[in-house]
């Protein structure tokens, strides 16, 4: 728990600069969420600019949801640059499985040592080839059904693997953590999952600068989201007002409140 | 009226998966609106992925507002795939008329049997070549002035044609329905028109699975928007708070409340 | 002050049509802000459509934040068309300095006589080559440190130059105006700076049609943003609810209230 507090404090202390290469639906909420938690967003897709920036950023998010070919080319260059510069990068394999182009892209970049993979259960199964993925961006598989695939993925890639659901599971080769919290309204707000990928990036950067593990960073990000979701759920009962309350809560919630509100369980 | 209730209930019962190929301004509100009404959004523009997905989705939205050439190519493939798979698809000819590239695209895809065309009066006149279109995305023509063009369009294309305005008109070869409701604040919130196109897609899918007509589906979508607009107008007097109240209302309003709030008139 | 009032009244009286070519993060907030102040937005990036539209619009915004190559090509054509048609156009050099592609683009279009350049201090220094730009989209330099670069820029380009910060500075060859107001929450809402560029475009169009100067138009835009920020700050203490209150305030604030709320100082 003290790691979560230290990481969230360190995000505000160091303002990690997160290079986001993300889909066309969520850039605005992703940027607003990063600003709310104390990080700094930069969306840069153009190949040459992305290549330059990935080497300078604190962390890089690759979200393979809806984008065009030139952005995909930028992602390839950015992942290469991040790998060379030891910039931690995060893969969010949105709706991977049934869609041929983005599935091939996700599997290709996965070879370049992401620090973490964050997805729902169907996407983890889609990425590892054990399922055709979910229904659009929604998971049709349960979190626990993807645990085996997630364990294989963390072993083969070295990445921390996070599966989002009512209870999130964060897995690395020698550690499994479950985080419970949030609200049933969260899946009704587009971008809550995608912006979590960006917050994972920010928290991994903050964890590394505090000499903590990437696994700790991923747990801190999920705990923060769960806690803000729990707080917003007390204030709002419909998705648009929930969205406002939730971003406000990401801004106002204190790190010690996060660890009180989110149920974090190691196993 | 019972058709409207059955369709809106069926959206929540069947969660139609709406493949949205839409403009750069509105993906987020479109996705949030679909989630609020009980449907599932998927934004997929990349040609090969769009081609695959259009055959699997419950319905497809083609909105020719601001997009790039690769998305336009994806739209061509998706419309073809939808036509082959009998996936209902909806055309929203945003600002068609004066802009050469998107006007040519809209007229080209129109040949592939859309289930519905949804637009404002200027766009209907622009699509049929009777006007140079509106002023940007805003209508400069009155709904009633576009009735003749809409009648020609439904005859020639077979599509249900909906003209949005203070009173919406839904026209098919043998039926005309007018829906009144909403709020004068709706045109001040970007994406209320564009997301209506996506909701038309969801409601046509739900209508078909309930053995009702596409015309019924288009009416249900417009009635839902009008009712939510009326409810939100009671709570908010400026556009950003209206936007929140309106999306919340799309989530909370019950189907029987929709038919009480929206004035639906057959002629 | 009377100029500010006349310009803001004239925006509502004439509804300037603002052609926005902007980055992937902010189209929605930009459109909503333009609608809230009484202007009309049109986002058109496709080269041939952008070329046609730039000649018809009331003003054009070129924001070189995150975009793809085809949009950049469209910007070149649109700037040419605007210059030929004497359409005022505004340059927003987002994150220019360290990123090679967008920096070259910004410097290239700058040769085509923008009416105004709006940026933060780091971006002004990045545009003139005196700094490598800020940290992503955030300024790392102080407004006053960029005054010299801004003076050179207004002399060489003929454009009114506006530097955004806690106190904004608007500079033309023979006039310097400072505007103070707003809220510390504004930098935590993505797009408040980018949408200011669009409002500068609308206000320059409204100033010209009222036989006032472009400098007056830029000041009016900044005063409106500062006043709305001050009003929203009284209602909200976290970024998402601030965003709602701020857009509402842009819609409800009266021109005479703007000049009472924003401190405008000529020097």
From TrEMBL, chains A, B, C:
UniProt xrefs under NCBIfam families: PRK09355.1
Cofactor: Mg(2+)
Protein source organism: Bifidobacterium subtile
Family (UniProt): Belongs to the Thz kinase family.
Function: Catalyzes the phosphorylation of the hydroxyl group of 4-methyl-5-beta-hydroxyethylthiazole (THZ).
Pathway: Cofactor biosynthesis; thiamine diphosphate biosynthesis; 4-methyl-5-(2-phosphoethyl)-thiazole from 5-(2-hydroxyethyl)-4-methylthiazole: step 1/1
Annotated substrate binding sites: 43, 191
Catalytic activity of the protein: 5-(2-hydroxyethyl)-4-methylthiazole + ATP = 4-methyl-5-(2-phosphooxyethyl)-thiazole + ADP + H(+)
Enzyme nomenclature, EC number: 2.7.1.50
HAMAP family in the record: Thz_kinase
Keywords for the protein's UniProt record, in alphabetical order: ATP-binding, Kinase, Magnesium, Metal-binding, Nucleotide-binding, Thiamine biosynthesis, Transferase
GO BP, sorted A to Z: thiamine biosynthetic process; thiamine diphosphate biosynthetic process
Protein name in UniProt: Hydroxyethylthiazole kinase
One Gene Ontology MF term: magnesium ion binding
Residues annotated as signal peptide: none
């Amino acid at each position: 728990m003290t790691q979560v507090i230290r990481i969230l404090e360190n995000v505000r202390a160091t303002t990690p600069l997160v290079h986001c290469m993300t889909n066309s639906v969520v850039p605005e909420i992703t940027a607003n969420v990063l600003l709310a938690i104390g990080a700094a967003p930069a969306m840069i897709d153009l190949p040459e600019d992305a290549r330059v920036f990935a080497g300078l950023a604190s962390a890089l998010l690759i979200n393979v949801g809806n984008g065009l070919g030139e952005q995909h080319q930028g992602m390839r260059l950015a992942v290469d640059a991040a790998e060379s510069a030891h910039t931690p990068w995060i893969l969010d394999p949105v709706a991977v499985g049934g869609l041929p182009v983005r599935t091939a892209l996700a599997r290709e970049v996965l070879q370049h040592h992401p620090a973490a993979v964050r997805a729902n259960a169907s996407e983890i199964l889609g990425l590892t080839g054990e399922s055709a993925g979910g229904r659009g961006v929604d998971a049709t598989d349960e979190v626990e059904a993807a645990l085996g695939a997630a364990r294989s993925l963390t072993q083969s890639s070295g990445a921390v693997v996070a599966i989002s659901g009512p209870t999130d599971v964060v897995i690395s080769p020698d550690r499994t953590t479950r985080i419970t919290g949030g609200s049933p309204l969260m899946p009704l707000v587009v971008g809550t999952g995608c912006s979590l990928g960006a917050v994972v990036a920010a928290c991994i950067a903050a964890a590394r600068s505090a000499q903590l593990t990437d696994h700790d960073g991923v747990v801190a990000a999920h705990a923060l989201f769960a806690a803000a979701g729990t707080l917003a759920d007390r204030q709002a009962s419909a998705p648009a007002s929930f969205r406002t309350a939730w971003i406000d809560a990401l801004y106002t919630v204190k790190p010690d409140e996060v660890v009180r509100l989110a149920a974090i369980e190691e196993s």
